[in-house]
Amino acid sequence: MSMQERIRSVEERIAAACDRSGRKAEDVHMIAVTKYVSLDTAREAFNCGLSNLGENRWQDAQEKWLALSGGEQASNDGKPVWHFIGSLQTNKVKDVIGKFTYIHSLDRLSLAEAIHKRAAQLGINVPCFIQVNVSGEESKHGLQPEELSAFLDKLADFPGVRPIGLMTMAPYESKPEDTRPVFRALRQLRDEIRATSAHAEDLIHLSMGMSNDFEVAIEEGATWVRLGTTLVGKEEE
User: Fold this and answer.
1) For the segment 2-39, what is each residue's pLDDT rounded down to a tens digit?
2) How far, rounded to the nearest angstrom, does the alpha carbon of residue 25 sit from its chain's CA centroid?
3) Is 74 strand, coil or helix?
């Protein structure tokens, strides 16, 4: 299947999921996760109209970023918009902030402080998704749901960080339907926080759903889905 065919197939599946849940397809954004593909494939994805590209490690993303963004700010017109979707170490913040427009894995105050300091140096603020470990898996990063409200209150001390939504990763399930409770819980948590927290007025988005389960995530309110294999494929090293 060609890149264009995969994109068309995913767009049709997104539209169908939106129809089932009474949503508009334009409210759901695709991130093409390029961490398992070559620079040439990442370039093809961008040239085919996938403007949002996702990577989870700077050392793996560096070649692609330099080639496709030309050393300029990643959000410039004509360049990809980069999303950092992996766990971010504080000592890598200097490499990532200013190159990746969105951070999907804010999960601790030490990271918020590091992002804020780097953002202040660059004169920017950084849209961030707060990662929440809804499933409770020990292998997953993220805040516990009951920690979110206090975390948001403390983020007010770091104006370089702009929380725009929540992110979670569901367990891999052979039946995607089994992931629904995780996605539903994240949506309900966002809605509760927006209703009760003084610092959550911009907490709109939900980054959830991957190749195996993105349709269920959309039915439960995802606004950003992170798609690798089903959208851009996977290349063996």
Assistant:
1) 999 999 999 999 999 999 999 999 999 999 999 999 99
2) 18
3) coil
Please report the sign of the dihedral spanned by the C-alpha atoms of residue 49, residue 52, residue 57, residue 63.
positive
For β-strands 161-167 and 205-207, DSSP reports them as parallel
Nearest to 4 by CA among 51, 45, 33, 37: 45
Contact assessment for residue 152 and residue 132, using Cβ atoms and an 8 Å cutoff: no
Separation between Cα atoms, residue 31 and residue 222, nearest integer Å = 12
Dihedral angle sign, alpha carbons of residues 37, 38, 39, 43: negative
Nearest CA to 180 out of 155, 212, 204 is that of 212
Q: Report the alpha-carbon distance of residue 63 to residue 52 in Å, rounded.
A: 17
- Rounded Cα distance between 208 and 187, Å, is 10
Residue located via tokens 């988005």: 205
**Domains along the sequence of the chain with CATH:** 3-232 (3.20.20.10)
User: Tokens 């292998």 — which residue?
Assistant: 139
Residue 142 makes CB contacts below 8 A (sequence gap 6+) with: 107, 131, 132, 133, 134, 167, 168, 169
